[in-house]
Amino acid sequence: LPAAVLAAEPGRDAVAAVRHVRGLVTTGDGTAALAAAARLRRDNPGAPDAHMLVGDVLAAGGRWAEAAGAFAAAADIAFSESAALRLADAQRRAGAPQAASLTLGLFLAQNPRSIPALNANGALLLAAGRWDAAIALFEGLRRRIGDGDAAILNNLAWAWAGKGDPARAAAFARAAHAAGPANPALADTLGWLLFEGGDRRYGLALIEQAVAMAPADPGLRWHLAQAYAALGRAHEARVAAEAVAANRDFPLRADALALARAP
Q1: Do residues 60 and 30 make contact, with C-beta atoms less than 8 angstroms apart?
Q2: Residue 180 main-chain phi, psi, to 5 deg
Q3: What is the pLDDT of residues 196-211, one digit of tens each?
Q4: Residue-wise DSSP of 116-150
Q5: Is 212 left (phi over 0), alpha (psi -120 to 50) or beta?
Q6: Are the CB atoms for 43 and 17 separated by under 8 Å?
Q7: pLDDT in tens, 127-170
């Protein structure tokens, strides 16, 4: 986050103040991080970066509705790409997908060629099950920038899977994984699609690999829990589901709790 435009407390450098906040977040001291970020915002009420720093700290603590408020304040001052994307993501995670769609729509009306904003809007289309619209959006991006973007290929895999074309979905997932073999989300996508398509051995191996690379991601671990349950590995399924259910913001937490408590 740029800090040169911010004024720190007397005797303190703004860049060092932001680094201090980031360090507190990294070490898990969210309370101190929020207090320090709030002080910086108080001293710089007209600086969007100060509001975004507060939003980032709140987001790190899973306080998405409050983070959205901070990002909205930043966007009111300067409706930049970073402010719009942060705001839309926080709104989505706070359970307000329509507000997120409105934010992205407003930004794209002013910046129709923004690839990050188009990608974010495509993710909302996927979440809403609007497969044809998502395919059209991501195919448009693929025509613009080619086949080297693993995220776009991965999104196309999910869109085609949702539309009911598992062969095409798997082809896109393989291409995405080949473009980014060290990316846990790409390994998870390919693993899940293969597992559901009948290649359970290789599919499970990829899902386990994804979780090993990103153990804190509840979405990846939820796929692992479901895969273990499908294979009759009940104890491992419960353990994985318990880890998922520990995340109170996970949208399928109720399902994870049910699996964790299954006999």
Answers
A1: yes
A2: -145, 70
A3: 999 999 999 999 999 9
A4: HHHHHHHHHHHHTT-HHHHHHHHHHHHHHH-TT-H
A5: alpha
A6: no
A7: 999 999 999 999 999 999 999 899 999 999 999 999 999 999 99
**């473009």: which residue's tokens?**
179
Q: What are phi and psi of 255, to 5 degrees?
A: -65, -40
| Distance separating alpha carbons of residues 177 and 153, to the nearest angstrom | 9
- Alpha carbon separation from 181 to 37, 119, 150, 200, 209 (Å, rounded): 37, 20, 10, 19, 11
Judge contact between 105 and 85, C-beta under 8 A.
no
Contact at 8 Å (CB) between 118 and 138?
no
Q: What is the spatial distance between Cα 246 and Cα 241, in angstroms, rounded to a whole number?
A: 9
pTM attached to this predicted model: 0.81
- Cα–Cα distance, 133 to 101 (Å, whole number): 14
| Nearest of 200, 147, 140 to residue 171 by alpha carbon | 147
Using one digit for the tens of pLDDT, what is the confidence trace for 6-37? 444 434 567 788 888 888 888 888 899 999 99
Structure tokens that stand for 45 in this block: 């009420």
